[in-house]
Amino acid sequence: MTRALIIVDVQNDFCEGGSLAVTGGAAVAAGISLVLGKAGDRWDHVVATKDWHIDPGAHFSAHPDYQDTWPAHCVVGSTGADFHPELATDKIEAVFHKGEHQAAYSGFEGHTEAGETLAAWLRERNVTEVELVGIATDHCVRATALDAKAEGFATTVLLELTAGVAPGTTATALEQFRAASIETTGEPVVSS
User: Fold this and answer.
1) N or C: which end of the chain has fewer CB atoms below 10 A?
2) Catalytic residue among 138, 140, 147, 149
3) 140 part of the active site
């Protein structure tokens, strides 16, 4: 079995001080780094996703509803789109950018700078199992996990290394994980 870690959207704009901050985001970044430092050979591969917006249309709103529309975030070229400084990036082999000109929640909607998709990259390396961490439990982690399972990967979300936007949507995400037979560990940090 070949296992990969997918680090979802641990970017400045999703951590404290960012334009779309999620409580616990910086702690998630630090926690992932700690686990990566101790992981040894737990993962054969480590990849990451980034929200990477140029003009995502109605995804950005001056009056966001925080469900389908959001304040501007992770704009290409801004410091908000950068990985959070607490996230150790030395083990990340590939970064998949998503959402240049549309809303894109799943890392499986993204691609590398060379245009390779996440599913193709994982299959090329014979990955059969993925573990997910990152931000936000109830949005991009949720969408990426559901797509990973749909793509045929054994999927586990390490909830202790995720942060959710809101209790209600996080609870819904956990129900969706159970319904899709996605394994979980721990409990997410959730804004109240």
Assistant:
1) C
2) 140
3) yes
Which residue is catalytic, options 98, 138, 147, 149? 98
Sole residue written with tokens 């966001």: 64
Integer Cα distance of 10 and 87 in angstroms: 7
Angle in degrees, CA 31, 33, 35, rounded to 5: 70
State pLDDT tens for residues 155-187: 999 999 999 999 999 999 999 999 999 999 999
- Are 27 and 189 in contact, with CB atoms under 8 Å apart? yes
Distance CA 51, CA 175 (A): 24
Distance CA 35, CA 171 (A): 25
- List the beta bridge partners of residue 42: none
N- to C-terminal Cα distance for the chain?
A: 38
Contact 191, 164 (CB under 8 A): yes
Active-site pick, 9, 13, 51, 147: 9
Are 154 and 128 in contact by the 8 Å Cβ rule? The answer is yes
